[in-house]
Amino acid sequence: MKQLTTILFALFMTTISAQKVAFEKFYTSNKEKSTFSINLSASLAGSFLDDEEDSDLMNIIKKSSDFKLMIFDNEDGVIASDFKKFRRNNQLKTLARVKDKGSKAELFFVEKNNFIREIIIRANSENDNFVLFGLETKITKDELAAMISSSDIKISTD
Asked: What pTM was estimated for this model as a whole?
Protein backbone atom coordinates (compact mmCIF):
# COMPACT_ATOMS: atom_id res chain seq x y z
CA MET A 1 0.00 0.00 0.00
CA LYS A 2 2.85 2.37 0.85
CA GLN A 3 4.45 1.75 -2.57
CA LEU A 4 1.15 2.39 -4.35
CA THR A 5 0.72 5.68 -2.49
CA THR A 6 4.29 6.69 -3.37
CA ILE A 7 3.76 5.85 -7.05
CA LEU A 8 0.46 7.77 -7.21
CA PHE A 9 2.07 10.77 -5.51
CA ALA A 10 4.98 10.67 -7.98
CA LEU A 11 2.56 10.52 -10.93
CA PHE A 12 0.58 13.42 -9.47
CA MET A 13 3.73 15.54 -9.11
CA THR A 14 4.79 14.67 -12.66
CA THR A 15 1.37 15.71 -13.96
CA ILE A 16 1.56 19.03 -12.12
CA SER A 17 5.01 19.83 -13.47
CA ALA A 18 3.98 18.73 -16.99
CA GLN A 19 1.23 21.35 -16.92
CA LYS A 20 3.80 24.12 -16.70
CA VAL A 21 3.47 26.29 -19.79
CA ALA A 22 6.12 25.94 -22.47
CA PHE A 23 7.67 29.40 -22.19
CA GLU A 24 7.89 29.12 -18.41
CA LYS A 25 10.35 26.26 -18.92
CA PHE A 26 12.53 28.35 -21.23
CA TYR A 27 12.26 31.37 -18.92
CA THR A 28 13.30 29.35 -15.88
CA SER A 29 16.21 27.55 -17.54
CA ASN A 30 17.66 30.68 -19.22
CA LYS A 31 16.91 33.38 -16.65
CA GLU A 32 20.52 33.48 -15.45
CA LYS A 33 21.83 34.06 -18.99
CA SER A 34 19.60 37.09 -19.61
CA THR A 35 20.73 40.68 -19.15
CA PHE A 36 17.18 41.56 -18.04
CA SER A 37 14.14 39.47 -17.15
CA ILE A 38 10.80 40.24 -15.54
CA ASN A 39 7.69 38.28 -14.74
CA LEU A 40 4.45 40.29 -14.38
CA SER A 41 0.88 39.34 -13.61
CA ALA A 42 -1.70 40.47 -16.17
CA SER A 43 -3.55 42.58 -13.59
CA LEU A 44 -0.41 44.57 -12.82
CA ALA A 45 0.46 45.02 -16.51
CA GLY A 46 -3.10 46.12 -17.31
CA SER A 47 -2.94 48.89 -14.72
CA PHE A 48 -0.46 50.77 -16.95
CA LEU A 49 -2.80 50.93 -19.96
CA ASP A 50 -5.74 53.14 -20.81
CA ASP A 51 -8.87 51.07 -21.57
CA GLU A 52 -10.08 53.57 -24.16
CA GLU A 53 -6.89 53.90 -26.21
CA ASP A 54 -5.66 50.30 -26.09
CA SER A 55 -8.89 48.26 -26.33
CA ASP A 56 -7.38 45.41 -28.39
CA LEU A 57 -4.42 45.13 -26.06
CA MET A 58 -6.68 45.33 -23.00
CA ASN A 59 -8.79 42.49 -24.42
CA ILE A 60 -5.72 40.25 -24.61
CA ILE A 61 -4.60 41.31 -21.13
CA LYS A 62 -8.02 40.52 -19.67
CA LYS A 63 -7.75 37.01 -21.08
CA SER A 64 -4.14 36.58 -19.97
CA SER A 65 -2.65 35.53 -16.68
CA ASP A 66 1.10 36.02 -16.84
CA PHE A 67 3.73 37.96 -18.82
CA LYS A 68 7.42 37.21 -19.10
CA LEU A 69 10.05 39.39 -20.76
CA MET A 70 13.67 38.39 -21.32
CA ILE A 71 16.47 40.33 -23.00
CA PHE A 72 19.73 38.63 -23.92
CA ASP A 73 23.09 39.65 -25.31
CA ASN A 74 23.29 37.12 -28.15
CA GLU A 75 26.72 37.83 -29.62
CA ASP A 76 27.66 34.17 -29.79
CA GLY A 77 24.24 33.02 -31.06
CA VAL A 78 23.79 30.47 -28.27
CA ILE A 79 20.46 31.81 -27.04
CA ALA A 80 19.06 31.97 -30.59
CA SER A 81 20.12 28.36 -31.09
CA ASP A 82 18.60 27.31 -27.74
CA PHE A 83 15.33 29.04 -28.61
CA LYS A 84 15.24 27.37 -32.02
CA LYS A 85 15.53 23.95 -30.31
CA PHE A 86 12.91 24.99 -27.75
CA ARG A 87 10.59 26.09 -30.56
CA ARG A 88 10.89 22.72 -32.31
CA ASN A 89 10.61 20.63 -29.13
CA ASN A 90 7.47 22.47 -28.01
CA GLN A 91 5.94 22.55 -31.50
CA LEU A 92 5.37 26.29 -31.48
CA LYS A 93 3.24 27.39 -34.42
CA THR A 94 4.38 30.47 -36.33
CA LEU A 95 1.72 33.13 -36.76
CA ALA A 96 3.83 35.87 -38.36
CA ARG A 97 7.40 36.80 -39.34
CA VAL A 98 8.73 40.27 -40.08
CA LYS A 99 12.20 41.24 -41.30
CA ASP A 100 13.44 44.78 -41.75
CA LYS A 101 16.99 46.06 -42.22
CA GLY A 102 18.73 43.35 -40.21
CA SER A 103 16.06 43.14 -37.52
CA LYS A 104 13.67 40.24 -37.28
CA ALA A 105 10.52 39.47 -35.28
CA GLU A 106 8.42 36.33 -35.07
CA LEU A 107 5.10 35.62 -33.39
CA PHE A 108 4.47 32.07 -32.17
CA PHE A 109 1.61 30.42 -30.33
CA VAL A 110 0.81 27.23 -28.46
CA GLU A 111 -2.64 25.78 -29.02
CA LYS A 112 -4.37 23.36 -26.64
CA ASN A 113 -8.01 22.27 -26.70
CA ASN A 114 -8.93 24.79 -29.43
CA PHE A 115 -7.55 27.70 -27.39
CA ILE A 116 -4.37 29.68 -27.86
CA ARG A 117 -2.73 29.10 -24.49
CA GLU A 118 0.51 30.99 -25.08
CA ILE A 119 1.74 33.73 -27.36
CA ILE A 120 5.50 34.18 -27.69
CA ILE A 121 7.19 37.04 -29.51
CA ARG A 122 10.84 36.75 -30.46
CA ALA A 123 12.78 39.75 -31.76
CA ASN A 124 16.41 40.42 -32.52
CA SER A 125 18.38 43.21 -34.10
CA GLU A 126 21.66 43.83 -35.86
CA ASN A 127 23.38 44.65 -32.56
CA ASP A 128 22.85 41.09 -31.23
CA ASN A 129 20.09 41.88 -28.73
CA PHE A 130 17.65 39.00 -28.47
CA VAL A 131 14.25 39.70 -26.89
CA LEU A 132 11.59 37.19 -25.90
CA PHE A 133 8.13 38.10 -24.64
CA GLY A 134 5.69 35.40 -23.59
CA LEU A 135 2.18 35.54 -22.27
CA GLU A 136 -0.21 32.91 -21.02
CA THR A 137 -3.68 33.37 -22.38
CA LYS A 138 -6.91 31.59 -23.21
CA ILE A 139 -8.32 32.96 -26.44
CA THR A 140 -9.60 31.33 -29.62
CA LYS A 141 -7.99 31.79 -33.03
CA ASP A 142 -11.08 33.75 -34.08
CA GLU A 143 -10.68 36.16 -31.16
CA LEU A 144 -7.00 36.68 -31.99
CA ALA A 145 -7.81 37.22 -35.68
CA ALA A 146 -10.50 39.75 -34.76
CA MET A 147 -8.07 41.64 -32.51
CA ILE A 148 -5.43 41.74 -35.22
CA SER A 149 -7.87 42.78 -37.96
CA SER A 150 -9.43 45.52 -35.81
CA SER A 151 -6.05 46.90 -34.80
CA ASP A 152 -5.14 50.32 -36.18
CA ILE A 153 -1.48 49.33 -36.63
CA LYS A 154 -0.50 49.80 -40.26
CA ILE A 155 2.09 47.55 -41.81
CA SER A 156 3.82 48.89 -44.90
CA THR A 157 6.80 48.03 -47.00
CA ASP A 158 9.28 50.62 -48.16
From this structure: 0.72
The one-digit pLDDT tens for each residue of the chain (158 residues) are 444 334 434 433 433 333 456 788 888 888 888 888 888 776 665 565 555 555 666 666 677 777 888 899 887 888 888 999 999 998 898 888 888 887 888 989 888 888 888 888 898 877 778 899 888 888 888 887 777 776 655 554 44
Close Cβ partners of 147 (under 8 Å, ≥ 6 residues apart): 56, 59, 60
Give the bridge partners for 38, in sequence order. Answer: 69
The SS3 assignment for 106 reads strand
Distance CA 54, CA 45 (A): 13
Residue 33's alpha-carbon distances to 2, 43, 62, 70, 86, in angstroms, are 42, 27, 31, 10, 15
Q: How far is CA 119 from CA 5, 6, 20, 31, 108, in A?
A: 38, 36, 14, 19, 6
In whole angstroms, what is the distance from residue 120 CA to residue 70 CA?
11
Closest CA to 138 of 119, 158, 157: 119
How far apart CA 10 and CA 155 sit, in angstroms, is: 50
